[in-house]
């Protein structure tokens, strides 16, 4: 039996990385995937690859009207909304002393504000569909600090606590909507690609990042997507407001 049969999932950042890997898995498991992204070329190409079970829609995650349009396109095309993956994100290296106000706002607008707007836009459609599951991508740096990623840590910590509020609110209101956060370690995706060839001491960026993880390697987008699949499916029906870590042992 397909694990997402009859379920429609809207994915921000769906054109690449964890979002794209999840979209492929959603369609493979019998669901419909809406790829919402600013990268129209990649998004449309992936939607074409996935066929009738996929749709591309343009999305600026920091714009409320853009979210309203993306949810409306989802419902109009597939008849409802049952799952939301907030996967769009950006990572930069900075400290409290060298991060500009503009850079802090940019990172938090995409990672934090974008997740807030996604949850807010999706809940009414999920209520109309009888319930659903929201999955927010945080990070291991939403669980612990890092001296080299101040704005990113702040944004991903915000996603973690926003997730708990959404979960508790929806439970209290009897909406049948669950909300959980996923906390990946360093995953081999376009987000970290610029760091892999940089030198850190006498090591390449890739080697340095690999050695952070006790399993000795970077994660794959597909590995995170399988955890997301569990949370989008009815198999996780008693899980809400929780952190699900996929980090090769890094936080251990």
UniProtKB/TrEMBL annotation:
Any GO MF annotation of the entry: oxidoreductase activity
Coiled-coil region: none
Alphabetical list of SUPFAM superfamilies matching this protein: NAD(P)-binding Rossmann-fold domains
Entry keyword set: NAD, Oxidoreductase
Domain called Ketoreductase: residue spans: 7-143
Name of a matching Pfam family: adh_short_C2
Entry-linked PROSITE patterns: ADH_SHORT
PANTHER family per record: DEHYDROGENASES, SHORT CHAIN (PTHR24321), ESTRADIOL 17-BETA-DEHYDROGENASE 8-RELATED (PTHR24321:SF8)
Family: Belongs to the short-chain dehydrogenases/reductases (SDR) family.
Protein name per the record: 3-alpha-hydroxysteroid dehydrogenase
């Amino acid at each position: 039996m397909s694990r997402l049969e009859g379920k429609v999932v809207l994915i921000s950042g769906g054109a690449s990385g964890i979002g794209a890997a999840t979209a492929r898995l959603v369609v493979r498991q019998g669901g419909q995937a809406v790829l919402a992204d600013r990268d129209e070329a990649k998004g449309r190409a992936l939607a074409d690859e996935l066929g009738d079970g996929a749709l591309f829609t343009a999305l600026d995650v920091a714009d409320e009207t853009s979210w309203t349009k993306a949810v409306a396109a989802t419902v109009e095309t597939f008849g409802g909304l049952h799952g939301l993956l907030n996967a769009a994100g950006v990572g930069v290296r900075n400290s409290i002393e060298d991060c500009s106000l503009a850079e802090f706002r940019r990172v938090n607008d995409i990672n934090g504000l974008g997740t807030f707007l996604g949850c807010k836009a999706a809940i009414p459609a999920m209520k109309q569909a009888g319930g659903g599951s929201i999955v927010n991508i945080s990070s291991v740096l939403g669980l612990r600090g890092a001296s080299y990623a101040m704005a990113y840590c702040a944004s991903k910590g915000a996603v973690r606590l926003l997730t708990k509020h959404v979960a508790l609110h929806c439970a209290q209101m009897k909406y049948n909507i669950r909300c959980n956060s996923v906390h990946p370690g360093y995953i081999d995706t376009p987000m970290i690609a610029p760091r892999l060839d940089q030198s850190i001491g006498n090591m390449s960026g890739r080697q340095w990042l690999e050695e952070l993880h006790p399993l000795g390697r970077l994660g794959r987008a597909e590995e995170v997507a399988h955890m997301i699949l569990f949370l989008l499916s009815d198999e996780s029906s008693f899980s809400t407001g929780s952190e699900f870590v996929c980090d090769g042992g890094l936080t251990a």
